[in-house]
Design brief:
Helix content: 25-40%
CATH superfamily: RelE-like
Strand content: 25-35%
Shape: globular
Number of helices: 2
Number of domains: 1
């Protein structure tokens, strides 16, 4: 199943990668790899992850305090947010 990023989710991803790169370049690369693995898991089993709302789910990113918030729309996965799990819950809800 194909996927797209909401523009704000893409920005969140870039900001998180920049943060981890500022600590250690390898850490930034590891974060990107884990995001890719998380999206692959979502593509394989899009309905497996806990619901946050009627059509929105979240899959946690292994090894990092982030989750991928997504929806399935017309046979595509739309990444709504790359959400830090310790910050403002539901801040992304106006994107759906």
């Amino acid at each position: 199943m194909a996927y797209d990023f909401h523009p704000h989710a893409q920005q969140e991803l870039e900001e998180a990668v920049a943060y981890y790169d500022s600590i250690n370049r390898e850490l930034g690369d590891t974060f990107i790899s884990e995001v890719e693995r998380t999206i692959e898991r979502i593509q394989k089993l899009p309905e497996a992850w806990p619901k946050l709302s009627n059509n929105t789910r979240r899959c946690r990113i292994v090894g990092f305090p982030y989750g991928i918030v997504y929806q399935v729309r017309e046979q595509r996965i739309v990444v709504v947010a790359v959400m830090h799990l310790q910050r403002r819950p539901n801040y992304w809800s106006d994107r759906i």
